[in-house]
Specification:
By secondary structure, this protein is an alpha/beta fold. It contains ten helices and eight strands. Helix 2 packs parallel to helix 10. The two termini are 27 Å apart.
Length: 213
Protein backbone atom coordinates (compact mmCIF):
# COMPACT_ATOMS: atom_id res chain seq x y z
CA UNK A 1 0.00 0.00 0.00
CA UNK A 2 1.41 3.36 -1.07
CA UNK A 3 0.73 6.29 1.24
CA UNK A 4 0.85 9.88 0.01
CA UNK A 5 3.31 11.70 2.28
CA UNK A 6 3.38 15.07 0.54
CA UNK A 7 2.01 16.72 3.69
CA UNK A 8 2.12 14.74 6.93
CA UNK A 9 0.37 16.93 9.51
CA UNK A 10 1.41 16.10 13.09
CA UNK A 11 -1.31 17.03 15.56
CA UNK A 12 -0.30 17.47 19.18
CA UNK A 13 -2.64 18.69 21.96
CA UNK A 14 0.25 20.66 23.46
CA UNK A 15 0.51 22.69 20.27
CA UNK A 16 -3.26 23.18 20.03
CA UNK A 17 -3.32 24.67 23.55
CA UNK A 18 -6.83 23.55 24.35
CA UNK A 19 -8.23 23.45 20.82
CA UNK A 20 -10.35 20.50 19.74
CA UNK A 21 -8.16 17.74 18.37
CA UNK A 22 -10.62 16.39 15.83
CA UNK A 23 -11.70 19.79 14.53
CA UNK A 24 -8.07 20.79 14.05
CA UNK A 25 -7.24 17.53 12.28
CA UNK A 26 -10.24 17.85 10.00
CA UNK A 27 -9.22 21.41 9.15
CA UNK A 28 -5.72 20.24 8.25
CA UNK A 29 -7.18 17.50 6.08
CA UNK A 30 -9.46 20.00 4.36
CA UNK A 31 -6.42 22.18 3.70
CA UNK A 32 -4.60 19.39 1.92
CA UNK A 33 -2.87 17.19 4.50
CA UNK A 34 -2.34 13.79 2.88
CA UNK A 35 -1.67 11.92 6.14
CA UNK A 36 -1.95 12.67 9.83
CA UNK A 37 0.19 11.70 12.79
CA UNK A 38 -1.04 11.88 16.38
CA UNK A 39 1.59 12.89 18.91
CA UNK A 40 0.69 12.85 22.62
CA UNK A 41 3.97 12.70 24.54
CA UNK A 42 2.45 13.38 27.96
CA UNK A 43 -0.71 11.25 27.65
CA UNK A 44 -1.34 7.77 28.94
CA UNK A 45 -2.21 4.89 26.65
CA UNK A 46 -5.93 5.14 27.35
CA UNK A 47 -6.18 8.83 26.47
CA UNK A 48 -4.14 8.33 23.33
CA UNK A 49 -6.27 5.37 22.27
CA UNK A 50 -9.47 7.37 22.69
CA UNK A 51 -8.06 10.25 20.66
CA UNK A 52 -6.76 7.93 17.95
CA UNK A 53 -10.12 6.22 17.57
CA UNK A 54 -11.87 9.57 17.22
CA UNK A 55 -9.43 10.64 14.53
CA UNK A 56 -9.63 7.32 12.71
CA UNK A 57 -13.42 7.58 12.56
CA UNK A 58 -13.44 11.20 11.40
CA UNK A 59 -10.60 11.32 8.86
CA UNK A 60 -10.28 9.96 5.35
CA UNK A 61 -6.47 10.26 5.25
CA UNK A 62 -4.15 7.63 6.80
CA UNK A 63 -3.50 7.96 10.53
CA UNK A 64 -0.13 7.31 12.15
CA UNK A 65 0.68 7.36 15.85
CA UNK A 66 3.89 8.70 17.31
CA UNK A 67 5.94 6.19 19.33
CA UNK A 68 3.11 3.93 20.55
CA UNK A 69 2.79 0.92 18.26
CA UNK A 70 0.58 -0.88 20.79
CA UNK A 71 -1.92 1.97 20.79
CA UNK A 72 -1.75 2.21 17.00
CA UNK A 73 -2.67 -1.46 16.68
CA UNK A 74 -5.51 -1.16 19.20
CA UNK A 75 -6.87 1.87 17.36
CA UNK A 76 -6.50 0.15 13.98
CA UNK A 77 -4.39 3.03 12.74
CA UNK A 78 -2.48 2.82 9.47
CA UNK A 79 0.94 2.93 11.06
CA UNK A 80 3.37 4.20 13.65
CA UNK A 81 6.34 6.54 13.66
CA UNK A 82 9.28 5.61 15.87
CA UNK A 83 12.55 7.21 16.91
CA UNK A 84 15.92 5.85 17.92
CA UNK A 85 14.80 5.26 21.52
CA UNK A 86 11.58 3.41 20.63
CA UNK A 87 11.01 -0.24 19.77
CA UNK A 88 13.13 -1.22 16.76
CA UNK A 89 11.48 -1.70 13.40
CA UNK A 90 12.61 -5.33 13.24
CA UNK A 91 10.76 -6.15 16.47
CA UNK A 92 7.63 -4.32 15.36
CA UNK A 93 7.54 -6.20 12.08
CA UNK A 94 7.32 -9.52 13.93
CA UNK A 95 3.94 -8.68 15.42
CA UNK A 96 2.56 -5.87 13.24
CA UNK A 97 -0.69 -6.48 11.34
CA UNK A 98 -0.49 -7.00 7.60
CA UNK A 99 -0.14 -3.68 5.80
CA UNK A 100 0.88 -1.78 8.94
CA UNK A 101 3.37 0.93 8.02
CA UNK A 102 6.37 2.05 10.06
CA UNK A 103 8.23 5.33 9.71
CA UNK A 104 11.50 6.20 11.40
CA UNK A 105 13.27 9.39 12.42
CA UNK A 106 16.72 9.95 10.93
CA UNK A 107 18.93 12.78 12.13
CA UNK A 108 22.48 11.42 11.98
CA UNK A 109 24.54 9.14 9.72
CA UNK A 110 24.38 6.46 12.43
CA UNK A 111 20.59 6.61 12.47
CA UNK A 112 20.59 6.48 8.68
CA UNK A 113 22.70 3.31 8.77
CA UNK A 114 20.35 1.75 11.31
CA UNK A 115 17.33 2.71 9.21
CA UNK A 116 18.87 1.11 6.13
CA UNK A 117 19.26 -2.16 8.02
CA UNK A 118 15.79 -2.01 9.57
CA UNK A 119 13.81 -1.48 6.38
CA UNK A 120 11.01 0.90 7.45
CA UNK A 121 8.40 2.24 5.05
CA UNK A 122 9.66 5.83 5.08
CA UNK A 123 12.33 8.08 6.60
CA UNK A 124 11.58 11.37 8.33
CA UNK A 125 14.81 13.37 8.20
CA UNK A 126 15.59 16.36 10.42
CA UNK A 127 15.33 18.57 12.21
CA UNK A 128 16.03 20.50 9.02
CA UNK A 129 15.29 23.98 10.35
CA UNK A 130 15.10 25.38 13.88
CA UNK A 131 11.97 24.22 15.69
CA UNK A 132 10.31 24.79 19.03
CA UNK A 133 7.95 21.81 18.65
CA UNK A 134 10.47 19.21 19.81
CA UNK A 135 12.63 20.02 22.81
CA UNK A 136 15.24 17.35 22.01
CA UNK A 137 15.46 18.04 18.29
CA UNK A 138 19.09 19.17 18.50
CA UNK A 139 20.75 21.64 16.17
CA UNK A 140 19.12 21.94 12.75
CA UNK A 141 20.91 20.05 9.98
CA UNK A 142 19.92 22.50 7.24
CA UNK A 143 19.35 21.65 3.60
CA UNK A 144 22.92 20.35 3.10
CA UNK A 145 22.46 17.98 6.04
CA UNK A 146 19.12 16.85 4.69
CA UNK A 147 20.61 16.11 1.27
CA UNK A 148 23.47 14.16 2.82
CA UNK A 149 21.19 11.96 4.94
CA UNK A 150 18.58 11.49 2.22
CA UNK A 151 21.34 10.28 -0.10
CA UNK A 152 21.92 7.38 2.30
CA UNK A 153 18.38 6.05 1.91
CA UNK A 154 17.85 2.92 -0.19
CA UNK A 155 16.62 3.48 -3.73
CA UNK A 156 12.89 4.11 -3.77
CA UNK A 157 12.63 4.86 -0.04
CA UNK A 158 10.23 7.76 0.60
CA UNK A 159 12.13 10.49 2.48
CA UNK A 160 10.32 13.44 4.01
CA UNK A 161 11.70 16.45 5.86
CA UNK A 162 10.72 17.58 9.34
CA UNK A 163 11.57 20.45 11.66
CA UNK A 164 10.72 24.12 11.36
CA UNK A 165 8.93 23.71 8.05
CA UNK A 166 6.69 26.50 6.79
CA UNK A 167 5.05 27.50 3.53
CA UNK A 168 8.12 29.63 2.83
CA UNK A 169 10.70 26.84 3.05
CA UNK A 170 8.74 23.69 2.18
CA UNK A 171 9.52 24.06 -1.51
CA UNK A 172 13.25 24.16 -0.85
CA UNK A 173 13.05 20.77 0.83
CA UNK A 174 11.25 19.28 -2.14
CA UNK A 175 13.93 20.72 -4.41
CA UNK A 176 16.51 19.07 -2.14
CA UNK A 177 14.92 15.70 -2.87
CA UNK A 178 12.21 15.27 -0.23
CA UNK A 179 9.07 13.35 -1.16
CA UNK A 180 7.08 15.50 1.24
CA UNK A 181 7.16 17.35 4.56
CA UNK A 182 6.01 16.71 8.13
CA UNK A 183 4.64 19.79 9.87
CA UNK A 184 3.46 20.56 13.40
CA UNK A 185 3.49 24.19 14.55
CA UNK A 186 3.15 25.93 11.19
CA UNK A 187 -0.21 24.20 10.82
CA UNK A 188 -1.61 23.56 14.28
CA UNK A 189 -0.37 26.70 16.03
CA UNK A 190 -1.84 28.84 13.25
CA UNK A 191 -5.04 30.80 13.75
CA UNK A 192 -6.33 29.36 10.47
CA UNK A 193 -5.34 25.69 10.43
CA UNK A 194 -6.96 24.92 7.09
CA UNK A 195 -5.39 27.93 5.42
CA UNK A 196 -1.96 27.14 6.83
CA UNK A 197 -2.13 23.55 5.58
CA UNK A 198 -3.34 24.75 2.19
CA UNK A 199 -0.39 27.12 1.75
CA UNK A 200 2.15 24.44 2.65
CA UNK A 201 0.50 21.86 0.40
CA UNK A 202 0.51 24.34 -2.48
CA UNK A 203 4.22 25.04 -1.95
CA UNK A 204 4.97 21.31 -1.94
CA UNK A 205 2.92 20.60 -5.05
CA UNK A 206 4.44 23.52 -6.92
CA UNK A 207 7.96 22.34 -6.09
CA UNK A 208 7.15 18.75 -7.05
CA UNK A 209 5.75 19.92 -10.38
CA UNK A 210 8.91 21.94 -11.00
CA UNK A 211 11.08 18.95 -10.18
CA UNK A 212 9.38 16.87 -12.86
CA UNK A 213 9.98 19.38 -15.64
Amino acid sequence: MTVDLRLLAIVDPDVLRGGDLVLAARAAEAGGATALQLRMKRAGAGAMLAAARRLRDELAVPLYLNDRADVAWAAQAHGVHVGADDLPVEALRLVAPRGFRIGVSVGTPAEAAAARRAGPDYWSVGSVFATASKADAGAPIGLPGFRALAALAPAGMPVIGIGGITADNAGSLIQAGARGVAVISAIFAAADVQGAAKRIREAVDQALAGRKT
